[in-house]
Amino acid sequence: MREAAEGASEIGLEGISIGSLASSLGMSKAGVAGHFNSKQDLQIEVVEYGARDFGEKVWEPNADLKPGRERLLGCLDTWYAYSAASPFRGGCLMTAISTEFDGRPGPVREAIAGTWGRWTSVLLADLDHAIEAGELAPPLAPKDTVAALESLAAGVNQQTQLHGKAHPEKTAAAAARVLLGIVP
C-alpha cells in the first residue's frame, strides 16, 4: 500500500494500476492482483491508507489536547507541517487525490470526500467549542473559517511541491491565526 500511495501522490490514483504497482514492486501482476478485486478497490485502499497516515501524523499528536482553541491550533500546525514535509514522494497524498477526483463522480470520490468530511467535522467541532468558550472570535462564519483553513493546507502543499518554497507552513500558521481572529 505504501508504494501505491507513493505512486498516487506523484501520478494520481488514475495512474496507479495493478500492473504498474507490480512493476514498481518487482512482483508479478497476479501476485498483486490477488490483493485487490479491481483497480477501483486498489484506489479506495490507497485513499484509506492515506487517511490512516494523515490521522496518525496529524490528529493523533493532538488528540489529547484540550478541545477548542488549543487542539484546533495544534491540529492546524501539525497539518501544515505535515503538508510541507512532503510525506509522500509527490507531497501530501490526500491533497493530490482530492484535487484529482473533486470533479469526478463515483465511489473513489465518495471515499475521498468522506475522509475530508470527517476531518472537517473535527476542525469545526473544535472551532465551535472555542467560540462557545470565548476562546476565539473569527470574523467569518465557522464553516467558512474551516474552508479557508483547509485551503491554506492545500496551498502549503502547492507552495512546497510546485514552487519549492521553504517553510510555507509558517505562513499558513500565521494566516490561520488571522482567520481565527487571533491578532498578533
Write a compact overview of the structure shown.
The chain has 184 residues and is mainly α. The chain has helices at 2-11, 18-25, 29-33, 39-59, 69-84, 93-101, 107-132, 142-161, 168-179. The chain starts with a helix and ends in a 5-residue tail after the last helix.
Verbal overview:
The protein is mostly helical. It has one domain: Tetracycline Repressor, domain 2, CATH 1.10.357. Helices cover 69% and strands 0% of the residues. The chain contains 9 helices and no strands.
Separation of termini? Answer: 43 Å
CATH structural fold name:
Tetracycline Repressor, domain 2
Based on CA inertia axes, which overall geometry fits?
A: elongated
Q: Which whole number gives the mean pLDDT? A: 94
Question: In CATH, what is the class?
Answer: Mainly Alpha
Number of strands: 0
Task: Please outline the helices and strands.
Elements lengths: L1 H10 L6 H8 L3 H5 L5 H21 L9 H16 L8 H9 L5 H26 L9 H20 L6 H12 L5
